[in-house]
Amino acid sequence: MKKLVVANLKMNLGLEAVQKYITTIKGQITNQLLVIICPSFPFLSLFKSAEYQLGSQNTFYKKDGNYTGEVSPSQLKSLGVKYIIVGHSERRLIFHETNKIINQKVAAVLKENLYPILCVGENKEQKLLHKTPVVIKEQLNEALKKIDQEMLNDVIIAYEPIWAIGTGLTPTPGEINSMGEFIKRVMSFEYNANNTRVLYGGSINQNNIKSIFSLENIDGVLIGGAAVNPDLFIETLNKIS
Ligand code: PGA
Questions:
Q1: What is the CA 124 to chain-centroid distance, rounded?
Q2: pLDDT given for residue 219 in this prediction
Q3: What's the average model confidence in pLDDT over 92-102?
Q4: What's the gap in Å between 238 CA and the centre of ligand 1?
Q5: What is the CATH number for 46?
Q6: Ligand 1 pocket: which of 95, 206, 209, 222 to mutate (most atoms within 8 A of CB)
Q7: Is the CB of residue 8 below 6 angstroms from any atom belonging to ligand 1?
Q8: Cα–Cα 20 to 30 A to 170, which of 29, 125, 199, 227?
Q9: Do residues 198 and 234 make contact, with C-beta atoms less than 8 angstroms apart?
Q10: For ligand 1, is residue 227 a contact (CB within 6 Å)?
């Protein structure tokens, strides 16, 4: 199975910059990788290429109705979106998304036969108190409540320590690999999901991508800052091979 690279562009780039982004990455992505680009909602339909897949940074859990400002998984699907990031720490912290909301979103994404990329991660204090595994397990258990057994292998887990996002800090490769192994073990023992893909996200850059990407228990990476400039993004991808 191909390893994944998810580019989370967050709330960056306007129309012109997006158009430039698309032309810059054209023809630059090797088909040995499964690259998923997650632009802001308004630009989703501009990204159409056989070289990468389309992802969304967020969604709401209802199918349609009076939910001003929200976008549903089925609307995203109609634009060609296949992957949806759910529970990013910025959504949890800034927009007060609870585990219950995240659980509803995971269910709604799976219902449309799309792949949720479920983000989990500890904060600095929890790390210092050695609570990382407990925190991650609780986030998984809450987010996956009552999810259909046969859909669980479609849930991609992104391990993203909050203290590593946008800070230039990362856990050691050994710590990242252990968390990948831990998450796979929880998914297998508790949910009978034996094919879970686990990504790492948080300050991925040109210097660390290769060593993290090659870890045995890590199936890909989620890149924020290093994916926003298209030239840097391609340079970063080129470091993998
Ligand atoms: P970063 O963001 O690569 O800028 O740390 C990662 C993320 O927020 O998913």
A1: 20
A2: 98
A3: 97
A4: 19
A5: 3.20.20.70
A6: 222
A7: yes
A8: 29
A9: no
A10: no
At 134, the amino acid letter reads: V
- Most informative mutation of 204, 205, 206 for ligand 1 (most atoms within 8 A of CB): 204
Surface-to-core class of residue 128, CB atoms within 10 Å of its CB (0-12 exposed, 13-18 middle, 19+ buried): exposed
Which helix (H) or strand (E) segment is 188 a member of?
helix 173-191
Q: Which of 137, 221, 127, 207 is nearest to 177 (CA)?
A: 221
Host domain of residue 45: 3-238
Q: Mean pLDDT throughout 107-122? A: 98
Q: How many residues does the chain have?
A: 241
Please compute the mean of the pLDDT values over residues 209-225 and round it to a whole number. 97
Atom of ligand 1 nearest to the CA of 203: 5
Written in H, E and C, the secondary structure of 9-67 is CCCCCCHHHHHHHHHHHCCCCCCCEEEEEECCHHHHHHCCCCCCEEEECCCCCCCCCCC
pTM of the model: 0.97
Domain count, the chain: 1
159 touches 123 (CB < 8 A): no
First to last CA, the chain: 16
Q: Which residue has the tokens 């046969």?
A: 150
Cβ–Cβ under 8 Å, residues 160 and 201 = yes
Which residue, among 232, 187, 239, has the nearest Cα to 211 in the 3D structure?
Answer: 239
